[in-house]
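Bug report (template v2)

What were you trying to do?
Predict the complex of my protein with PRP.

What happened?
Run completed; filing so the output is reviewed.

Input:
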Amino acid sequence: MLTIVKHPLIEVKLDILRDENTKSKEFREALEEIASIMSYEVFKDLEVYDSDEIITTPTGAALHKTKLKKKIVLAPILRAGIGMVDGVRNMIPTARTGHIGIFRDEKTLLPHEYYFKLPEVKDPLVVVIDPMLATGGSATAAIAAIKKRGFTDIRLMCLVGVQEGVDAVEKAFPDVHIYLAALDDHLNKNGYIVPGLGDAGDRIFGTK
Ligand code: PRP
Ligand code: URA
């Protein structure tokens, strides 16, 4: 299932990311802010319960502290996924974070896994995070690697995608809900999303 998270604040901030003149600092800030806003949609169906912990309000009333039923694990795909993690973690401070190292070969566009570490948490909701969903190769490889380790409840949170990437993930993993802020037009001959925002990792980390 695909959800396009529509919000006027996201649209305004997305243009900051799309603008080739945006500097790395402003790029990182806008990316993190969009990730925070998207979190409202990605996590809106989480169940909560009244825990045994008691909080007291300034009026003296006592209440059971509300907690999330499921543990949340964030799984950013290195490098660019890192740019969205703090935005999500600001909304869910109790989330634990793993890392999945995957890069796409510039010629073949095929994904290569070089690192994998997720926290040891029982039956969590794992949210794979990456700003770009292009061919879908990296996201599909990340989800396959997560499933191989026995995790079953997985969502994919990206920023900009194209139909080709959405189709690739949906075909491989129909049970994984995909969230995007924008569905762009097409991939160019180098596998870049158009209009897109360029190379997300390079723009976040200023590597080019
Ligand atoms: C980018 C992006 C995704 C991937 C998307 O990473 O962050 O992980 O490409 O493309 P795909 O859908 O065709 O697989 P890249 O491989 O450039 O690595 P980097 O973040 O280390 O720069
Ligand atoms: N990876 C990126 O960083 N940008 C794209 O447009 C496609 C893949």
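What did the reviewer find?
Residues 77-80, 103-104, 109, 111, 130-139, 165, 191, 199-201 surround PRP (ligand 1) (CB under 6 Å). The radius of gyration is 18 Å.
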